[in-house]
Every structure is written in structure tokens, then in C-alpha cells.
Amino acid sequence: MGRPHTEFIQSQVLPWRRGLYGGAYPDVYHKVLSKDQDSGASSLLVRYPAGWKRTRAEYFDVDEEFYVLDGTLTINGNVYSKDTYAHLPRGYTRARASSRRGAVVLTFFSGVPAATSGKAP
């Protein structure tokens, strides 16, 4: 079916929801901008609170693209600050991740973002 067409959205009126749909990262918040009901692909705003961190290896079984709107996000020692883009392919192992002062990140997932512990096979 695909995602419904959205001409314009005022994200500031959308509620912040705890965690990512699919059960990943219960300690972040998100706003759904669009979501494909069949594939689970989505466009989200993700807010990482100050002091957020992940210290165990994990990966998503979907592609993740993001653009940092505010703050800083660090993944595997790579620092993504305001106006930085990244593409993390399906199976990319995040050995560690953090956001010291918090971040707001425009994020795109190619499917449901369920995190799996350990290194990707």
C-alpha cells in the first residue's frame, strides 16, 4: 500500500512518544512523521536525552539514515553533530552509542527498527 501522501506536517503539534516503535531504545522519544503500515518503513524525529548511552553491541535488521537537527550523537566513536548526515546499512553493529548533551535527529528506517543484541552475523 505504501505511505499515505502528506503535503505538510507541523511536527511541533505531534506528541513525543517513548521508545522507538518495534521496541528499540525505550530511553529515547520519537514523533512519527510518516509510516508505511505494510513494511514498517518510517520517517521520524528522534530525541536522545542528555546522558543517553548504549554500551552493548547491537544492530538493526533495517537501514537507518539520519540527519542531526540539534545536538550531537556519537556512534562507534564517530561524532555526528548538527547538520550531519549518516547512512547506517542493515546489520551495522553499534558497539557503543551516546549523546552527552542530547540530540534531535530526523531519522528514516527502511522497516521496523527492532534492535538485536550482539554483532550482526
Describe the overall structure.
This protein is an all-beta fold and 121 residues long. Helices cover 0% and strands 45% of the residues. It has no helices and 11 strands. The chain has strands at 17-18, 29-35, 42-48, 52-54, 58-60, 64-75, 78-81, 85-88, 97-99, 103-109, 115-117. Strands 1, 2, 3, 4, 6, 7, 8, 9 and 10 form a 9-stranded antiparallel sheet that branches. A two-stranded antiparallel sheet has the order 5-11. β6 (64-75) and β7 (78-81) form a beta hairpin. The model has no long low-confidence stretch (mean pLDDT 93).
Which structural class fits the helix and strand makeup? mainly beta
Order of helices and strands: EEEEEEEEEEE
Treating each run of at least 4 consecutive H or I residues as one helix, how many helices? Answer: 0
User: What distance separates the N and C termini?
Assistant: 31 Å
Strand content: over 45%
The biggest sheet, with number of strands, parallel, antiparallel or mixed sense and barrel status, is:
9 strands, antiparallel
Low-confidence stretches: none
Taking all Cα atoms into account, the compactness measure Rg is 14 Å
Note the overall shape.
Answer: globular
Key structural traits:
single chain; 121 residues; mainly beta; nine-stranded antiparallel beta sheet; 0% helix
Quick summary of this structure?
With 121 residues, the chain is mainly beta. The protein is 0% helix and 45% strand.
Give the SSE map:
Layout: E1 17-18, E2 29-35, E3 42-48, E4 52-54, E5 58-60, E6 64-75, E7 78-81, E8 85-88, E9 97-99, E10 103-109, E11 115-117
Antiparallel strand pairs: 1-2, 2-3, 3-10, 4-9, 5-11, 6-7, 6-8, 6-9, 6-10
